[in-house]
Structures are given as C-alpha cells and as structure tokens.
C-alpha cells in the first residue's frame, strides 16, 4: 500500500480502572459522543465535533519499524522534546511494536516505561524484544477498549504518538490519564498537523492544535507549548490546569 494512504498504526484502548477514574453515569458517558453516517475513513462516532477514525491493526507492525521513519518524522527530536529525566516513570499509550517505548526507556535508565497496548500481538512483539535484549525498565500493560490500566498518581509523563485520533473513548482515556499523572506531570501528544495540507496522511488521521486544545481542556489539561520542530507532526505538551 502506498505510504500516502497509510496512517500510523497504533491500536489502543481506553476505560477506567478503579484507581484512575471516578465512575460516570451512563448518561454522562453517552452525552460526550454523537453519531452520524460514517465518512469513508471514519467510524461515524463524533467527539466534540471530530469524527473518530478507524484503527489500523497489528498486521502492519513492520511499517512502524521501517528504516526511513527516523528521517521522515525526526523521532530523535520528538523524544528530545519530551524532556525525559533519567528516573522518570513514563506511560507510552498505544505503544504498538515499541518503536518509541524502547527509545524512551534508554533515556530513563533509573525509571520505567509502561508500554500500553490493546493488541496482544503487539505486546508479544515487545515481549520478544525485552527478552532478546534483557531490558529491565519496560513493563507491558494490556489495556481494554476504555482503560490503559494505569494507577492514580503513578507516572511523570504520558505520551501518545499518532494514537489519539483512533481512540474509541477519548474522554474516558484522558480522564484516566489526568488521574494517572503525578503532580507536575505532563502529557505529550504527537499528531499529524491538520493545518498542513502537504502532510501526506489521510484527513481523519490528522489533528489540529485548536481541536486538540478543545478536547484536552474538557478533561482539565492546558497546553503549555506546541513545539514546531518536527517535519509533519504537532508535538503538544499539556499539563493539568
């Protein structure tokens, strides 16, 4: 399949674990979303005016590990943007094959990276690398459709790399993430820029800064900065309001 037709593939999940989110009533949960006839690449489920995209699965895992990814996306710079400290506890939501996970783990030798994914096949890929390379500071977590299964006040940094636009329950996952962040913690969101028509990614797999701010504000996160030093992606750093 041509690259221009491929969005990044990460599949993930969202719903509350009892330690990380207050329970919502069915009315509160359902009122966050509306439903219409789906567009070509969408699910027909809308959140704050944005149609949620379809998820791509584990069969394209090799594409995540393509050799040209560093050049195309400047992954090294993206990780530098995160400001990772050597002893930080980090959650990589929608970790996929672990392309970011293991690179972040090297930046936090005295900390830990929780690699969260909903697909057991992705977790298996990462487990094999952990065993092969004897990696001690990566812990695998299988999420569900509505929870990344993080404990409250447990992480300094949460990252999502081209995952958020695919979440079936973005409000629930983000409420959970806000609860999981320690005081002073940060949420780093990487998404392809909707504002840039030259970015060769399908529309529903992009996100504008304005829409991201709207959605994060609804769960109590404030944009601290949007670093514009990546070829195609926003790198937005959010903190608790």
UniProtKB/TrEMBL annotation:
Cleaved signal peptide residues: 1-20
Protein's UniProt keywords contain Methyltransferase: yes
Record key words, sorted: Methyltransferase, Signal, Transferase
Domain Methyltransferase: 87-211
GO biological process, one term: methylation
Signal keyword on record: yes
GO molecular function, a single term: methyltransferase activity
InterPro entries: Methyltranfer_dom (IPR025714), SAM-dependent_MTases_sf (IPR029063)
SUPFAM superfamilies xrefs: S-adenosyl-L-methionine-dependent methyltransferases (SSF53335)
Protein name, UniProt field: FkbM family methyltransferase
Organism from which the protein derives: Neolewinella xylanilytica
């Amino acid at each position: 399949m041509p690259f221009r037709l491929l969005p990044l593939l990460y599949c993930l999940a969202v719903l509350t674990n009892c330690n990380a989110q207050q329970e919502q009533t069915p009315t509160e949960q359902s009122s966050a979303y509306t439903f219409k006839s789906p567009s070509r690449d969408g699910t027909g489920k809308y959140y704050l005016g944005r149609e949620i995209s379809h998820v791509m699965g584990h069969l394209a895992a090799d594409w995540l590990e393509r050799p040209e990814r560093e050049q195309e996306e400047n992954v090294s710079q993206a990780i530098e943007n995160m400001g990772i400290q050597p002893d930080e506890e980090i959650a990589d939501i929608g970790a996929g094959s672990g392309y970011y996970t293991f690179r972040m783990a090297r930046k936090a030798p005295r900390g830990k990276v929780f690699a969260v994914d909903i697909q057991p096949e992705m977790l298996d890929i990462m487990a094999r690398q952990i065993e092969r390379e004897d990696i001690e500071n990566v812990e695998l977590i299988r999420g569900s459709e509505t929870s990344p299964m993080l404990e409250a006040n447990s992480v300094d940094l949460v990252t999502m790399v081209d995952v958020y636009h695919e979440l079936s329950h973005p409000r629930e996952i983000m409420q959970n993430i806000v609860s999981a962040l320690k005081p002073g913690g940060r949420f780093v969101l990487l998404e392809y820029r909707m504002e840039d028509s030259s970015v060769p990614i399908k529309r529903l797999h992009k996100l504008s800064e304005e829409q991201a701010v709207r959605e994060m504000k609804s769960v109590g996160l404030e944009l601290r900065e949007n670093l514009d030093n990546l070829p195609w992606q926003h790198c937005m750093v959010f903190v608790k309001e």
